[in-house]
């Protein structure tokens, strides 16, 4: 099976010292991990257009004030298999200010429905990982 480098865009939404993340679980290493909302960039689509589309599809929200924070090359292992991503990390705001009052969001990811919630930056550690790995440091230095 050929190995591909995946290009994704994620968006940081802040509420005080908290960020909006989806929780996932790696059944191979038996640990949860968290990632901001976003997803794959489609062929012919800019990363900014991709993050706007992903947020609209996933949680039915519109966003403004998008700012590219950093591009991260993420080489990782998930479910015991190697992965490689180029991650465009954006920061943005919801146009609907009432979204910040919600404790959680229903996330529609293709055929799956998941949950995103606000999680304090200081709550991430070696067990409760925020991915990509250098994201906590980036967010704390750009707070």
Give structural notes:
The chain starts with 5 loop residues before the first strand and ends with a helix. The model has no long low-confidence stretch (mean pLDDT 93). Strands 1, 2, 3, 4, 5, 6, 7, 8 and 9 form a 9-stranded mixed beta sheet that branches. With 143 residues, the protein is mainly beta. It has a single domain, classed as Nucleoside Triphosphate Pyrophosphohydrolase (Alpha-Beta Complex), CATH 3.90.79.10. It contains 2 helices and 9 strands, in the order E-E-E-E-H-E-E-E-E-E-H. The longest helix has 13 residues, at 47-59. The chain has helices spanning 47-59, 135-141, and strands spanning 6-12, 14-15, 18-26, 31-40, 63-78, 81-94, 104-109, 112-120, 129-130.
Q: How far apart are the termini?
A: 41 Å
Please state the oligomeric state of the protein chains shown. Answer: single chain
CATH topology: Nucleoside Triphosphate Pyrophosphohydrolase
The main β sheet shows up as:
9 strands, mixed
What's a quick, concise take on this entry?
By secondary structure, this protein is mostly beta strands.
Features:
2 helices, 143 residues, mainly beta
What's the structural blueprint in terms of helices and strands?
Layout: E1 6-12, E2 14-15, E3 18-26, E4 31-40, H1 47-59, E5 63-78, E6 81-94, E7 104-109, E8 112-120, E9 129-130, H2 135-141
Parallel strand pairs: 1-6, 4-9
Antiparallel strand pairs: 1-4, 2-3, 3-4, 3-8, 5-6, 7-8
């Amino acid at each position: 099976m050929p190995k591909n480098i995946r290009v994704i865009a994620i968006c940081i939404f802040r509420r005080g010292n908290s960020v909006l993340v989806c929780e996932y679980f790696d059944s191979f290493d038996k640990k949860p991990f968290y990632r901001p909302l976003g997803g794959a960039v489609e062929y012919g689509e800019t990363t900014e257009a991709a993050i706007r589309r992903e947020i609209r599809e996933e949680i039915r929200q519109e966003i403004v004030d998008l700012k590219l924070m950093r591009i991260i090359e993420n080489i990782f292992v998930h479910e015991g298999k190697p992965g490689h991503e180029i991650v465009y990390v954006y920061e943005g705001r919801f146009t609907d200010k009432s979204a910040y009052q919600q404790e959680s969001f229903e996330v529609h990811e293709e055929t799956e429905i998941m949950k995103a919630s606000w999680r304090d930056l200081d709550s991430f550690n070696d067990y409760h990982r925020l991915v990509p790995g250098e994201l906590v440091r980036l967010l704390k230095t750009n707070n």
